[in-house]
Specification:
It is a single chain. The protein is mostly helical. Among the domains are: about 150 residues, no CATH class; about 50 residues. The protein is built from 24 helices and four strands. Strands 1-2 form a two-stranded antiparallel ribbon. A two-stranded antiparallel ribbon has the order 3-4. Helix 3 packs antiparallel against helix 4, helix 6 crosses helix 7 and helix 18 packs parallel to helix 20. The radius of gyration is 24 Å and the shape is globular.
Length: about 500
Amino acid sequence: MNEQFRVAHKLGLMFHHDTHLPDDVKAWAISQLHNKSPALGIKRIRLYPKHKVQEWPKSLQPDLKKRDDMFAVYKQNVRKQRMELEGHTSEAAKRANDRDNLMGEKDEMKFAHRNIYGKDQVRLRFTSFWANHFTTGNIWDNQNHIGHAIDEAILANLNGSFSHMLYKMTTHPSMLVYLDNVWSSGENSKNAIEARKEGRIEGLNDNLGRELLELHSVSPAAKYSETDIRNAASVLAGWGIWPGNISDGLMTLDERHKKLIKMGETTNSWDFFKKWHAEPGTKKVLGKVIPAGKGGLRHLTDFLASHENTIMFISFKLAEHFVSDNPSKSDIDYIANAWRKSDGNLDQIHSAVIERAISSKAPKFQWPMTWLFQVVRLSDASFFKGWDQIEKYDQGLMEVRKIFEELGQSFWHTRQPNGYSSAKSEWLSGEMFERRIRFSDAIYTAGYPSFTPQEIMDRIGANEATRELVNSLVGRKKQFIALMCSPELMGLENA
């Protein structure tokens, strides 16, 4: 594989057929960190003439307040269905409620489109890494939040500090809902005290406090205690409201907003803090004294972001994901040193990752999702529906959600808080390989690639082993499948 495509394979999503290949691939990759292109996609599948790539409509990218209101309306309509109110029980009404108020499927399609048609491929790869690091999932009907978190808490902050991203993801409703913090009350909070008087149980939920330490920052290498976890959870107590769970009866949106203001002094679920649920007094986490009140969380996330164990833990994850399946100590240390020198500046950290990924000639196995995007980009296939075809089921193409389900990887599904492994051993089963074969077949059959396997191999500079394998087969379809599932394009051998 030529140098441009080798780097694009490790760090990006492959060049489109009409993209000029850069002479200085390192400079190109680093410049990509600031390539703030808009979300691109297609309105509808057209084969003749080829579909037009354009910006995603704003109507399909609502802000957080709109998403919260849409979800509140959705929950109210579900309640009306259960009450068997006229006009809400038919299948058509249920489908309309889903279509008009739920964002999960639309956000999944936007994510797929962005990765297929986007010009900021290196930024998108880093976005996927961080979306996995800060895993959330569609639990407690969280689907209206996940796409917003990826776009606005991660992608929008790729040029800032890790400390800021950590804070923004920790306080995002997607995370607060996913890890149950919306239900948490400090043991000595006014809410918990009043609940005990009334014979109810309201207490601390330590799920987010635990994962904040274990998965998002210092890792178990920091040797934190259960007390540290409880204290971190106490700092978090009061943060978050489940947008669809604040209705008494069938209140209007205006009534709901007034109740939100009364509870948290805002209708912004990204900044929602319930004082009555907060644990009073200072807390101590890993020896750091954290002040009481809403601002205490920023003190905690800033402290954790600069902790040496955080630096080493995430530097390893970055090296394993981008540089090599078995990164060397020097790879990890190089990234960690960039982190320390820049005080956690993500531009500098990502630049260090890019430098090591380019200098290392070791192959890097690709996630199923990454592999799929690369295959579609390389072949210029029309594999994903257009945004105005999302409700249509006669296109001969799978739904985006089903595609991700079949691949065994999606940022929208319920999954473990530690996300998907970057280790190739987790993805090399016979079943997973068979799925890639089936998808290569489907892309060829339904997507109508614009280029022959030989044309693709010539453009990327495929190695001799890959060429020999592909050319040994009879029929373009078999050749296409062999190329896309070759060790070279899967990242299993040196380019």
